[in-house]
Amino acid sequence: MNNYSPFWLYNNDMDMPSSYTKRFRQLRWKLTLSYTGVTVGALLTVELILLASTAIFVAVLLNSGVIQTELINTMSAEYMPSLQFLLSQTPPDQDEITHWLDRMGAATSSTIPLTFNATDQLFIVGHDGVLLGSKPPDLFGSGTIGRPINMQALPGLAAPLQAALGGEEEVDNLYTLPGLDESVIMAFPIWDEAHERVLGVLIGVGKFPTVQSALSSIIPIMGISFLILTFIAGTAGTIYGSVAARGLSTRLDRLSEGTHAWSQGDFTQLVEDTSGDEIGQLAYNLNQMAQELESLLDTRQELVQIEERNRMARDLHDSVKQQAFAASAQISTAKKLLAKNPNKAIGNIEEAERLTNALRKELTNLIQELRSPALEGKGLATALQDYGHDWSRQNETELEIRLQGERPLPLDIEQTIFRIVQEALANIARHSNANRVEIGLVYTSKELTCMIRDNGCGFDPTQALLGFGIRSMQERAKTLGSQLNLESIAGEGTIITLALKLNNSLSYTEENRSHE
């Protein structure tokens, strides 16, 4: 049985991949890594979506004025009681106002979303536009406290200050963003207790968060969480993928084992997979195919046996039976002439003897054809040499076998070639009257050429009717995907050539043969 391995490429140590590389070439590891990649990729996609959504939300929130509105309302409620008392005095006590500003600059209130530290600017303007105090004290220059404020000294100050002094309560008009440096100017109107008139305005100039600054504090947190979640998700994906892939790869291994057995001609091994999915359906179809192929091969074997029996019957009828009848006729004639003409009877006996010898050779050839080629453990060349030696001795014909580049081939191919050579030698023995035969086997990496030459009587292939033997050789050649070439000239012998194309799938080793 043919047992050559499809992994012939790895017979050379130079081409043998490392075990590490081979492991990750396995389907199980490919599926495992794909599960891990999908898990991490899905997590990355979710993180990117969250980051983009956060950026959009922050941008909308900062540009909507909601934060500014909440900030002004909160700070107004926080500062209103103390500033009402300070600004309701006539005239306002500038020292107390300065002390209050210093205290606000040094304090931090957890209830206020925006606090003013030492780097921020904070000042109070009376209802008449007079600067009552500032932090730092020289914000508008020395000697400006107690004088009308110069609204042009600070870009963006005029609009919110005038709106606050005018009693504007629409928050959108009480702040400005004068530049691109994240600064904001906010005006907090200080009302009297009756909420009838504005006693003064608290102006704060500070840093207001932008989209970039907000995201710069969010991204590191999301980055750390992404790394942690990626590790967790990758580990979980790898474990889950390994478990899921193991079952799938096991099922595919069963398919591989079954098809490998079928490639060796063993169609009794079936794939065990009773699941109803695509792989299970494939296993079912392959099992059906294997059973049909086994039945087909059995039928073919029966047809071959019938064909061989019919051929042997024709050969016995065409040659052996005719020769036996002729020998019987010669003996009968000799018996009649023995008493009257002994000399002539001796001639008939000699002819009968010749016919009997020819009959013996014919029967010997037929018996040889019926024998199994017994190639197992020998190889084509050795089997041909053994057979050729016996054939040459029995037919008293010189036979020479020449080999070039011999290498093993699958057993079924060698058997077919052996049968072709066997049939050719049988035809030579019957019809050619040759005294010398040459058989050549030339192996190359891509082709095997088998040539059989004799120096017999030859014939004209265009005129002669091809016998069963030639047709049988041609049919055997077709089973190998090749064609038999026949060249013959009357009186000059015959050459039969078979050129068989070889490919990598026909590569074979002695180790394979040892398992057959």
What percentage of residues falls in helices of 4 or more residues? Answer: 55-70%
Individual helix count: 12
Low-confidence stretches: 1-17, 107-119, 507-516
Number of domains: 4
CATH homologous superfamily classification of the largest domain = PAS domain
Identify the CATH class of the largest domain.
Answer: Alpha Beta
Cross-sheet strand order for the largest sheet = 2-1-5-4-3
Shape: rod-shaped
For the terminal residues, how far apart are their CA atoms?
A: 5 Å
Order of helices and strands: HHHHEEHEEEHHHHEHEEHEEH
Structural class: alpha+beta
CATH topology of the largest domain: Beta-Lactamase
Give the number of DSSP strands. 10
Percent range for β-strand residues: 5-15%
Radius of gyration in whole Å, from Cα?
A: 54 Å
Largest pleated sheet: 5 strands, antiparallel
Supply the CATH architecture of the largest domain.
2-Layer Sandwich
Tell me, rounded to a whole number, the average pLDDT.
Answer: 77
